[in-house]
Design a protein that fits this description.
It is a single chain. The protein is 44% helix and 12% strand. The chain has a domain of 58 residues. It has four helices and two strands; from the N terminus they run E-E-H-H-H-H. Strand 1 and strand 2 form a beta hairpin. A two-stranded antiparallel sheet has the order 1-2.
Length: 104
């Protein structure tokens, strides 16, 4: 048995076209794959397949049919939940135990 604790990934919802879509944060391995692929459609596909639980084909099809703000918004929400982007609200970045800005 591992001495390291297993903790669940964060979950939440994102608003897409007025509908709440369940999302989850990326695992460390998924985040590594995203960072390595960053800069093009493949990186967005990685985020959507992991964060929403769709296939790569479904992610590509969805990205090709929605407008830029909608696609980017969902990807951004997943990246924020994963800790790969700063929260939109700076207050959410504060350490709840001290009230000061959280650092990594």
């Amino acid at each position: 048995m591992s001495k390291l604790p297993i903790t669940p990934v964060a979950t939440g919802t994102a608003k897409v076209g007025g509908t709440d879509v369940p999302i989850r944060s990326l695992t460390r391995e998924e985040a590594r794959r995203f960072v390595e692929a960053e800069g093009g459609l493949p990186s967005e596909v990685i985020v959507l397949t992991s964060g929403v639980g769709v296939t790569e084909d479904e992610a590509r099809e969805w990205l090709s049919t929605v407008d830029f703000p909608t696609g980017t918004g969902l990807v951004t929400d997943i990246l924020r939940l994963s800790g790969l982007l700063a929260p939109e609200d700076p207050e959410k970045a504060k350490d709840p135990t001290t009230g000061s800005a959280a650092t990594s």
